[in-house]
Amino acid sequence: MMNLFQLCPFTVSLHLIHHLLQEEIINLLPDNETKQSLDTKLLHPEDLIKLCLEGEKSAELSLRAFDVFAWTSSSFRKTHANLLEDCWRNAADQDDWSKLYQASVSEGWGDEETLQNLKDTVLFQASNRCYGPEAETFGEGFDEVLSLRQEITEPPIMKDSVSSVEAVLMQHKDYSEAGKLMLTAIMLGSLQDDNIEQEGPVPME
């Protein structure tokens, strides 16, 4: 994935980053009349994110939605927390977690096999993009809106709302079977890539 923060330092206008990201997203869309019409106007970030979530499954588009969130403001992320949750649901749907779980059991994955097989999942990559040590955002980080893991105890007022990526994943159809693997993916993704293989996977309780 192109790191637009390296390509465009923070001194470069948000407008330019907006334009570059939209161009990338449109290039990933299938060729049709809708795609042609999008080339002529700059979309609002919310519409750009929704564009990534609609239509056919696409790991690249799913990840681009998080890129859009990253370059918007902290207030945008907080205001559109529900849309951010939808992005995580979409990310979880990009991979066959039931199949991955069955493979992990039948093949007896060790730490190295688990890492290698989870690195290619969208959950791993999205977690690295949003929560990894090298993750970059404008304003406060993603954890100010959605923490990675569910808090053990939450105030009563929070019980009816989703407050973590883990809570979003708990709603997934494959969570009862593959939940531990899904959580391992987001935890590994939140670690720096060059240290993961040395340290090994984070044990999941």
From TrEMBL:
One annotated GO molecular function: structural constituent of nuclear pore
GO cellular component, one term: nuclear pore outer ring
Keywords: Nucleus, Transport
Keyword Transport carried by entry: yes
A Gene Ontology biological process term: protein import into nucleus
InterPro entries: Nup133-like
Localization per Swiss-Prot or TrEMBL: Nucleus
Keyword Transport applies: yes
UniProt name for this protein: Nuclear pore complex protein NUP133 isoform X2
Organism (species): Prunus yedoensis var. nudiflora
